[in-house]
Amino acid sequence: MSVDRLLDALRAGVGHANVLVDPDTRAPYEVDWTGRYRGTALAVVRPASTAEAATVLRACAAAGVAVVPQGGNTSLVGGSVPRGGEIVLSTRRLATIAPVEHTDAELIAGAGVTLEQVHDRARSLGWDMGVDLASRQSATIGGMVATNAGGQHVLRYGPMQHQVIGVEAVLADGAVVGRVPALHKDNTGYHWDAILSGSEGTLAVVTRVHLALVPALPERVVALCGVDDLDAALRVAGALRRDVDTLLALEVVFVDGLELVRAYAELPEPFPTPCTAYLVVECGGRIGSTERMVDALAAVLGARPEVRASAVASDAAGCARLRAYRELHTEAIAAEGIPHKLDVTLPFDRLAEFDREVRARIAAVSPTARTFVFGHAGDGNLHVNVLGPAADDSSIDDLVLGLAASMGGSISAEHGIGVAKRDALTLSRTATDIEAMRAVKRALDPRGILNPGVIFPPAP
Ligand code: MLT
Ligand code: ZN
Q: Mean of the per-residue pLDDT values for the chain?
């Protein structure tokens, strides 16, 4: 099929206005959030229903043209932008959000519904969504399933996969699979939500998601606590995990990142004397639980010799102020340039050693590089962000990922593989694993239509 005939078929399927071919209208879909990954799309196509998405995939399959599924385009590993000549299938018009009959503890969200819209709807029903991310205004539910998104509350509720009751998705040939609304118990063979979780758009395009909500915890308490190093932060985090039953998040930042955030957002120094590392702790509870949460936090923080300084807030503005020292890291770093973003997990007993070692090794090979580390202390997940080396220079990436793997860690805690880490996949997965994953890919997408080049290195 010629390109013109493909575009005609796409226009017939989704309407003329939803096939974007003009370079200016395509442009925002062709570069990722970091600015590090970009490419040119043949067109951006915006279906508004599962049936329209199926039409798009059928047409692309018939033409043998690859498809890059894209939600809010918040991938940090180049997984959602074209690499050259693909159709970008934007899910943003799959934007319906609906209740589930007989319960208000669940929602059915189109793939293009943003996380913030789910939060708002859930909260209006007296419930909440178990996942939260700084990119909540843009990140979409379909993309979050496809990448098994994490965020700050994984400690309490697990990643995106744990919030999903069922999915509906379109395979590369346009066939629709899955079931929405789903049943809570349905052990009838393979589970599409599990298969597609972390598939990064390589196996199917998620179009609708049946989500489980969590009870609302309207009262929040946030603490910022300064310590001497990551070892100390982890010991305090361990005590908090043991003794505070309302924990939602246990995040860590370091003084250099905190200073960057302060300069970026004009925030005050949190304590009279700076500390080397800081824990940002969030607790959540039902109405009337604030005092108990404050007391529980104060009891642990007051008893730990590692704590050099601490501040606790229980009003919304105060909580937001303390959270900002952590949450603004991504934005503050991006404002300085295009970062190399390495998102790793380590066994807890090697985290502090990794942090020391990674900084030293980066400084040794790239003395002018600026390294910022922050992350989810409760999950053993550090985000190593390096500014300085050119965007296309992957030597720092190789160094950081190689070190994490050599210490028993994973090269991706929550951001996925995308194109950024595909050459390092063998560091975290065995050859047998990768071949089995390739077999799944071949079975569901034998012609390699969906998101080629993502997760797996291109075939030699
Ligand atoms: C975060 O934890 O803030 C996100 O994973 C984003 C990032 O790593 O920059
Ligand atoms: Zn993160």
A: 97
